[in-house]
Amino acid sequence: MLQKMRDNAQSWVAKVIVGIIVLIFALTGWESINRFSSKADEAAEVNGEPITKLELEEAVSLQRRQLMQQLQQMGGQFDPSMIDEAFLRSTVLDSMIERSVLIQGAREAGFEISEQMIDQLILSTPDFQVDGKFDANRFDIVIRNMGMPSRMAFRDLVRQQLLITQFRNGYEATAFATPVEVRQLSNLENQTRDFAMLAVPLGEIDADVSDAEVEAFYTANAQQFMTPERVVLDTLTLARKDFFDQVEVDEEAVQQLYEREIGNLAEQRRASHILVEVGDDEAAAKARIDEAAARISAGEDFAKVAEEMSDDTGSSRDGGDLGYIVKGSFDQAFDDALFALQADQVSEPVRTSYGFQLIKLTDLKAPEVPSLESMRDQLVQELKVEQVERRFVEASQQLANLAHEASDLSEPAAALGLTIETIGPVERLGGEGLAANPKVMNAAFSDDVLNNGFNSDLIELDADTVAVVRVKQHLTPEQRPMADVRDDIHARLATTKAEQAAAAKAEQLIEQLRADALSIEAVAEQQGLEWQQHEAVTRGENQIDQALLRNVFAMPKPDGDQPAYASFKRAAGGYWLVALKGVSVAEDVQSTDAGSDPFALFVAGQSGQQDFAAAQQQLRNEAEIERY
Question: Which residues belong to any copy of the PpiC domain (predicted)?
């Protein structure tokens, strides 16, 4: 059983667990072990199971951090302040509710995830390994970077995600395709078309547009020629970085933090083990572990016995080696046994949650203690960050209160030693600098700020910067003079007329082709162009314009030997004239059996996804969901 789980881990879970699971988790959050009974502490409730506000805040914070990292990886092309906090919070809560519905559905369906499976997945995940071996320190670093508060929280995440995956696979892995569905898809996918195409360009845009037409268009579309609504803003900005020069750190605080840091350094122990799973017969399992212990006591090599007898096939290939471990990596019984051993000593048989185990301590690695001087800069920075955090929070709250109470921004500026900056005029869509932040522009054009003349609420631009804004001047939309827009209107009307003329000409040519009054060659000669012949073109052809290809495959099949004609507008201007000569279905080009397997897999996959989506929708419809 463990071998099967390990094989599964190596084939997909090991690749997914740190990637997809983290991404999914970033969008959904995790469920905490402890829950609050008070409704005031709940963000939502799903079938009586609460989602606490603490869980929601942790998930929102993690999602925000994930988005910030993605923005940084994009080279700073997007301002992190563009993240809409209200939308983010709503989206995360919806995802957590959806996740809770699925987990409850999976449990009701009888799906379960064992502790042994979670252990095996963690041990076999490459991101948690150093030199091919599980490394506890590496594990801690990775999950910390993921924003996980503890190992138990990560295990809980893995358990939930695997539970949902099992539930989904229950539908997707059991779906199938009928022969009719496979044949229909094969016919469509393998269909080919023979057609000729003539690209008719739009030509020169020299249509005659009168002044009367320009004036009529201007009058009928007056709203299109208004100046944008704009504002001039007074702003105050408070940045966390501005406080670093205002704080000092004493030597005693540095020493205390240093002692706390080195006190957290943990001893690492390299362990090997022999595992015998209990199953339905605990007595037989105990007899097997006793046999292994007796062989080792008689002088046999631990690694050899592990290779022959351990049920953990993943580690048995390496003589039972588990790599370096710190306390808390496994359950309490395992830890108690391992950390009571001397070097090269083997424990007595231990009953753990995994089964019966023999544990051998193969190496000790004492923590490396850095000197105070080597850590001084880091410690000073940490202490400064703590002080700056307090001051920044206090100043932010003071700015929010003063801005709420003051009639303008002069009083808050004077109280906090800030400088009022004026920006604009800027439109609703924003501008440069502070005006590029959607939150700033949303606040500036809110009813209270724009129409009532109030200062804005405190705006969190990013994790380290806040601001308040006030409208200094409101520039309402005005009609642009005809003289300013005449040329634009003239060009627009001329282009429209040219398009209409081209469309009429294309339809005229199509009618002549259909009536046999004009040959394909004559049309090409008349246009000074050549017909392009395409034979046995498939839907996946990438050498033909995709818009043209979609239109060609949407045309009806020709009736007899007479081609089907059509014209299609080109995005670049002008038209395509198409003569569809023939359509070949799948049976004409290959046997149905030759393409059955991939099409069957595709249809079954689509059916499985639809089945799971339907089950998910049913669970959602039947769930009792309360948002607070």
Answer: 266-363
CATH number at 335 reads: 3.10.50.40
Predicted pLDDT of residue 593: 46
**φ, ψ (nearest 5 deg) of residue 50:** -80, 150
Residue 234 domain flag: yes
> What percentage of residues in the chain have a pLDDT greater than 90?
17
**Could you say which of 365, 396, 423 is where a domain stops?**
365
Distance set, CA 472 to CA 259, 421, 424, 451 (Å): 54, 11, 10, 11
Average pLDDT score over residue span 363-390: 75
Output the DSSP codes for 500-516. Answer: HHHHHHHHHHHHHHHTT
Are 203 and 575 spatial neighbours (Cβ–Cβ below 8 Å)?
no
**Coil/strand/helix, residue 168:** helix
Listed residue (368, 301, 293, 305) closest to 337, CA to CA: 293
CATH value at residue 113: 1.10.4030.10
In a domain, 203, yes or no: yes
pLDDT tens-digit series, residues 534-572: 998 888 888 898 999 999 999 998 887 788 999 898 887
- Structural domain tally of the chain? 4
Q: What is the DSSP string of 270-314?
A: EEEEEEE--TT-HHHHHHHHHHHHHHHHTT--HHHHHHHH-S-HH
C-alpha 171/C-alpha 163 separation (Å) is 13
- Integer Cα distance of 17 and 157 in angstroms: 10
